[in-house]
Design goal:
It contains 17 helices and 14 strands. By secondary structure, it is an alpha/beta fold. The chain has two domains: 179 residues, 3-Layer(aba) Sandwich (D-Maltodextrin-Binding Protein, domain 2); 177 residues, D-Maltodextrin-Binding Protein, domain 2 (3-Layer(aba) Sandwich). Strands 1, 2, 3, 6, 12, 13 and 14 form a seven-stranded mixed beta sheet that branches. The protein has a five-stranded mixed beta sheet with strand order 9-8-10-7-11. Strands 4-5 form a two-stranded antiparallel sheet. It is globular, with a radius of gyration of 24 Å. The termini are far apart. 45% of the residues are buried.
């Protein structure tokens, strides 16, 4: 047999093998190109009947790109979503309910409240990103505070912020987010409400309760902080904190690596978010996170589930944790991973997750999130009576419900 004929046979064989594979596409945000290629190669080696396509999305355009693909009938098989998006997509028929698949994973993972909507599961909890309180140890010490004993209650934080703010005209006690979507309510305002046993919507998700006493109390406290606060976008607060001009601010774990890299001289730590009082409330945090959903347009459910199961696994999820330092696996027992022993600040975030609360599973979540940005900014940037602010937006939320 000539070399040319042999080559033809080989090419035909490879083509047939390719045609015999099922292609599964995954659109995701958390894996960079290098990690995506590694995951793709490892998965295909273990699953030679599946061709895996991994597309990286950006947070700036990813939501719109997903919506466009769905409208065009070209949605990916597996989609990573921020957990606050899930109810919106589920309510619009974008996702396939996965109750028939959840049984295979239910006991191995936490945060199933991320993916519940109308008594069904619409995805799989993948990665966790709670918020904690960052604090500058040197500023606490200069203000006569114990750097080994950061504030644990609202009043302790208020008093500590006042003392740090008094250190100088360019020093601020606490940073509070304004001027952008999401962070103004996620980084602390809504968790303060939750920690005060308050809610902005009733348990049956039918009645707005933003004008209730626990919310009003939290809003009054939040406004009291502004006398000692630097107000700005999250990135601006992080910069001020890195430069040693800010005592406290609230954010996700991404700023651990960022601050250590960009401001190595800054000595800081992280702690649970303060609760209302010593004997009342709890250290509530915003339960940020990522979920994996299977598109309602997916035609190969069994193969898509195999991909999801692989991504959920400790190997891939911990690779993302080690690479980004921004999120943690939902795998039960992940705190025993040796990585957390050598990364105590990240471990605190993982422990904070026990008090983390997800945004309620509302179909209009995206619109309500935008309202919360306005709520927080009116509390911090105006002198409008708190009750008036909350009543106005309570009516708007009720209309969306």
């Amino acid at each position: 047999m000539s070399k040319k004929v042999l080559l033809v046979f080989m090419l035909v064989g490879l083509t047939l093998l390719s045609f015999g594979k099922t292609k599964i596409s995954v659109w995701q945000f958390m894996m960079d190109d290098n990690l995506s290629q590694q995951v793709k190669a490892d998965f295909e080696k273990a699953n030679p009947d599946i061709e895996l396509e991994i597309v990286q999305l950006s947070w700036a355009t990813g939501f719109d790109r997903i919506v466009t693909s769905i409208a065009a009938g070209t949605a990916p098989d597996v989609i990573e979503l921020g957990n606050t998006w899930l109810a919106t997509f589920a309510s619009q028929g974008v996702l396939r309910p996965v109750d028939d698949l959840v049984g295979k994973a239910k006991d191995d993972y936490v945060a199933w409240n991320f993916v519940e909507y109308q008594d069904k599961y619409w995805g799989f909890p993948w990665l966790l990103a709670p918020r904690c309180m960052y604090y500058n140890l040197e500023l606490l010490e200069k203000a006569g505070l114990d750097p080994d004993n950061p504030p644990k209650t609202w009043m302790e934080l208020l008093n500590a912020s006042a003392k740090i703010h008094a250190l100088g005209p360019d020093i601020y006690g606490v940073g509070l987010c304004v001027g952008e979507l999401y962070s103004p309510y996620q980084e602390w305002f809504l968790p303060a409400v939750w920690g005060n046993f308050g809610h902005f919507v009733s348990p049956d998700l039918k009645k707005a309760t933003l004008n209730s006493d626990p919310v009003i109390e939290a809003a009054y406290y939040y406004r009291s902080l502004k006398d000692y606060a630097l107000l700005g976008k999250e990135s601006e607060l992080a910069e001020a904190f890195g430069k040693g001009k800010l005592g406290f601010f609230f954010a996700g774990p991404a700023y651990i690596n960022n601050t250590q890299r960009d401001y190595p001289e800054t000595i800081f730590d992280v702690a649970f978010i303060p609760k209302p009082r010593e004997n009342y409330g709890y250290h509530a945090s915003f339960a940020g996170g990522e979920v994996l959903g299977i598109s309602s347009q997916c035609k190969n459910i069994d193969e898509a589930w195999r991909v999801v199961e692989y991504l959920l696994g400790e190997k891939v999820a911990m690779q993302i944790t080690r690479t980004t330092g921004e999120v943690f696996p939902t795998k039960v027992g992940i705190e025993k991973d040796p990585w957390f022993e050598s990364h105590p600040l990240h471990r605190t975030f993982l422990e904070q997750n026990q008090y983390a609360v997800p945004f309620p599973p509302l179909a209009e979540a995206n619109k309500i999130e935008q309202l919360f940005t306005n709520i927080v900014e009116e509390i911090l940037l105006t002198n409008t009576p708190i009750e008036n602010i909350l009543q106005k937006y309570n009516e708007q939320i009720q209309s969306l419900l």
